[in-house]
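Example 3.2
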Amino acid sequence: MYYISLEFQGQRIKTFDINKPNAVIGRELDCDVHIDNLGISRHHCKIEEAGGVHVLSDLNSNNGTYVKGQRIVQYNLNHGDEIVIGKYSLIYENPQQAQAVAAGPEFEDLPTMGIGEPATVPVPPPDPGGDVTMAGAKDAELHALRRAAAIDAYMMIGDRPYILQKGFYLFGKASDSDFPTGGFLVKAKEAIIIREETGYTLIPIGGKTRVNGKKMQQQYKLGNADILKVGNQEFTYFLGKPS
């Protein structure tokens, strides 16, 4: 499974969880990632799995598909890549790939360039605790992934700590929620938290999420000892390891 986060003018609108080998992005209602905007073609681009890599392909769209400022035909996606179509950004998030990259050099031969171009093997970045001198943007990206994967954080649920290790957690009534919640009008997918370089960011989806008593309507960077209430369930977020 991987995730596509839809953003407009820097604000995250929605996150799509993709659990199928092929996913289409576009304006038509049958698209897996549906964007209702005339600047987006009906079937604008697609992501398909090929040999363990997710490949982004433009579907002859009118306005093109861009990654890192370049219009692409096909491109091998890496965790954190920003796909730009029209005025929208789509962030490709693959927690499994991020954890694999962070685990060690044996995973660093993942393809990083478009189909038909030679893949490169990034130079391993230095230890995050020392001086950081990056040779290029890819090294900086890998360094950030390592730091993100190394974050220690946990949730207190009552008097029980829950260590946060994944890149993505779901709150709500859905049967596959990481943090099941109840309450009046609580949605199946009420909120998510996503791991970033210095901690976790909350993305409210429904209207029943509060932090420190304040209703959340936009994404919010969680701080140490923040009290998160989703529906009728309360959680306290901490950085570090439980004592």
